[in-house]
Sequence to fold (638 residues):
Amino acid sequence: MTRKMIIDTDTASDDAVAILMALQTPEIDVIGITIVAGNMPVAQASINARYTVEICGKQTPVYDGIDAPLTREIYRAYFFHGPDGMGNMNYPAPKLQPQPKHGVQALIDLIRENPGVELVTLGPLTNVAAAVVQAPDIVANVSRCVVMGGAACTVGNITPAAEYNIWCDPEAARVVFRSGLPIEMAGWETCRGEANLTEDEMHYCKDVINTPLAHFAIDCNASALAANRDWLGDPGLGLPDPVAMAIAIDPTICTRKSKHYVEVECDGTYTRGMTVVDQLNVAPYDTANVAMWAPLVAKGEPHITVCWEIDAKRWKELLYKTISA
Amino acid sequence: MARKIIIDTDPGVDDTMAIFFALKSPELDVIGLTTIFGNVHTALASTNAVRLMEIADRREIPVASGVADPLTRAFGGPVPYVHGEDGQGNLFLPPPQGQPIDQSAADFIIEQVMRHPGEITLVPVGPLTNIALALRLEPRIAENVREVVLMGGNAIVPGNASPAAEANIRNDPEAADLVFGAPWQVTMVGLDVTHKVNMKRKHLEHYSTINSPLAQHIARIVPHYRDFFERTYEVDGIFVHDSSAIAYVIDPSLFKTEHWPIRVETEGLSRGKTWPNLGDRLRPEWENRPRVNVCVEVDSQRLIDLEMARMEA
Fold:
């Protein structure tokens, strides 16, 4: 039986690979892609998403969403993905047009019409927040909400404390984390270390797999590869969105996970956008915490699944499989 | 031609007075009500708004429910000691027959503004969450509204919800900062003027003598509200908050205004304080912000006369 999935994305190069993986997985039916502002303006992210849909030979509807964080000014990390978000490969304009319906309305309608749908978010959580505040009933219809975002008890990337997607719109992230959605948080650290594609593995994709999709997956990440090396000092290519998508497609790729209360810092001077994981489960029990954590604790038992470790070999195998067609 | 307005409201006793004032004013065409938390929770605001349209026998006016919490935090809670547990002076009326429409407040605002470019005046008299959300969902509403006339804020006078801040703005300062910063014409009808419009007991008691279901309803809900003002501010009667925004839309000559960019404090003790940058030397945080039309003086007597005359008509 196919599983229905909605992808919310600020499509740049690693989002594109994640979208590709979902579209190339036969048991997944991507019923809609909604676009949000993040590393790219919505207009460019929409082009990137539609181009990705086209090279997969699909007609998946793409809906343009909110082009700014809920309350803040946008900050774009152009240096990471390049001005077009796709490594400046000069890909042609897609023929596929965006749908007339707004991305937030599309999220609401698609979730209402498809109980049990899985939601995968690859960008800031602005669209999802706007959807759940206007239509809280949709929360009950989402069977999984895999979030590429945050940094669980580790360093951030855009700041020492925070990962970009959450940092970009922390208020939206807070709304979503408090909404009761069954979040599976794939923080950016899950794509580091062994999860990076090495030079050899990138050559394997292009020279051995050697399909148009394999070339696309590596080439469009040229800017990200350089940024990973020059800025983060990480060897190889980190692919946060595809790792999150791999976990979404095959939950067993996440090999260690546990449920916690997770809050998002909105006010901190140095810690804006930090995902604060209550790893020791102190939030409900100590007067130092009770008032602060009440909005989450009131929802019941800890319900946000934090992914701590992945099987790097199997994530890469899934990537290879999806770009082999 | 009557001016199309959408009132975004958390009714609320003074909201009720403002809505009925608008319905009785031939200059205005109330094309819809959108609801918000504030004086009451959003769900109750919607129930009350629908009931008010039934009391006024204006069931054709749609009510669209808004969001239940501020953009970034949980709602701090209603103020039953001001407006009553039911937001209607503790009358506890039976539920209305009708229902809100099946469209969110933000979507209703967007649809109406985009359908009638240059025609719609938004009159928010509660926290600005729906308006900010509509702006984020469809930024083009900024160039397609006629103007925004809001009740809220305090430019150069103290607050009421806190020493620093006015209640509507304090309930969602982040949303307010967006609304004051968007490229549209905003008029701020805040405590600078509303605390100068004092409707006295003799005016309030006059409502009960007017033979209309609208005035009769106001007469029934107002005592609880009046008692709050008389207890808290040691005044005779009430200050006219939300109706002052309606009065501005009908007759701006009632007010003297200044043109200042406004920022809203979102943190600390002063959360919700609206800060104008007076004069022409703008600090960086105020640069590149539109100048808000800030009401600073009001012809109080003429405003009260206008509202009373409309309710008698």
Notes: Chain B touches chain A at residues 67-69, 71-72, 74, 104, 106-107, 132-133, 136-139, 174-175, 177-178, 267 (CB under 8 Å). The two ends of chain B are 19 Å apart (CA to CA).
